[in-house]
Amino acid sequence: MTSVALELGGSAGAVVASRLSDIPEWKVLLLEAGPDEPPGADVPSMVAMFLGTDIDWQYQTTNEMNACLSTGGSCSWPRGKNLGGTSVHNGMMYNRGHAKDFDNWAAMGNPGWSWRDVLPYFMCSENNTEIHRVGRKYHSTGGLLTVERFPWKPAIADDILAAAAERGYPISEDLNGDQFIGFTVAQTTSKSGVRVSSASAFLRPVRHRRNLHISLNATATKIIIENNKATGVQFYQDGELRVARATKEVIASGGAVNSPQLLLLSGIGPKEHLRAVNVTVVKDLPGVGENLHNHASYTLSWTINEPNLFDLDWGSAAEYIAFQKGPMASTGLSQVTGMVPSIYTTPDHPDIQLFFGGYQAACATTGEVGALMNNDGRSISMSPTMTHPRSKGRLLLANNNPLAKPIIWGNYLSDPMDVTILVEGIEIALSLANTSAMAKYNMTLNNAPLAACSQYPLMSKNYWACAVRQDTGPENHQAGSCKMGPINDPMAVVDNRLRVYGIRNLRVADASIMPQVTSSNTAAPSMMIGEKAAAYIKSDWGVAGTQWYGKEPCSMWKHNHNHHHWRYQ
Length: 569
What we know:
- By secondary structure, the chain is of the alpha+beta class.
- It is built from 13 helices and 27 strands.
- Helix content is 22%, strand content 22%.
- It starts with a strand and ends with a strand.
């Protein structure tokens, strides 16, 4: 018998498990469908090494009518199937989102989720080793999650910042502070050249606790509900169907795919759909699986006038092994990002994020360290991304087999405004390439003309609008499928304390609760959601704040408006 059972130890679930195990009297069970973090995952340059492997759920969307058309209307959704979830696979950027993102959540009927409310929960996790650069107004030290820049970046990173400045964009030390618009070399969830996942940050320090049990390769299949109360979880492990009973709460923390899937398998969701797949209806909750949305991007690639060497050579390998420095201690050009407003948003709330790629110290496809990829020049990329998607999709069960993948309909780019903003992002990227700062690279666009778009003049707005529908880049920022909202919102799944409507002792804590996805990467907001969930659970069960490794619990942080900083109170 356990006190609290959590499903999946991803970005948020690892945080919740860690924080609840602070209470010695509570027994916490964390069920993870995959294995532990794999060897090599903590090397930043190996960021893409595990995509498409058995620790990637390898989800695909289906029936896309306006996106991913070059791949048959199916977009790829890699998701981490391991302890730490996708925080073991992502690019490690520490981006919280814009203050207005959270103020909008609160305005939708979710008290406690404004920027003022959530900032303490970001800060109490944080151990920012560059506090001298970013300041203490919005950042903190002493938390479990180390935040810093990588110890290496390619020289071209500074040229891209110079190109952005040439185009009139601010260059910022911190896009998580007062200035959310501009370009930066981003801070990351890393420590001295090593990835910091939610599992390594929040679970490794507490795995010795006797009241915390982490059960790996355990796939949750159903939440046990008796008299509209969650009392346990059914799961597969080692080929056996097992049951874990929970005396206090069950928390679904599987992310925007697995959490709604588990609720549906448990009979919580739209009654018509549940009956269609022969699942007994426990609670008719129409919003489960709805409101599913994601950022979308388009990648432009250029050849530049440098030899196309892999940055992983014997020298960089030795440097990393000995000192955790050099190209392997970073993601290359991918650590650069920019936040830009389109003409369709307010100037202070950017809706376009630019990602960059290249100079990554990864293994050559030939297996030869330091090999030339080919005799052509080196390639770099820019991926403009629209971050305020209007298009919404849904998730459904394929059948009542708990081990079957769900049906995911992203419904990308169904709203024409999403396409319009993405095209503006492409034009911004092209303008960055056409600057004096980048002229020395003699950049040549690699994107071949698309036959499917040949009816439009090449490089025209109409051409790019066609191109983004063909070669859509789905980001890994899925959200919204267990929407948080007030009780009068028919699509709301959880209330502002993350409690599932109509079912006692059941919560959802992950990016699926976001009413609207944040304006940038979602790992940091997901961990914040985990912090908030843990604080709500403790408060609702009358547990006093517990010391967390020398820091007060998040619930003890208050804002001192007179002094414009955050302090303990």
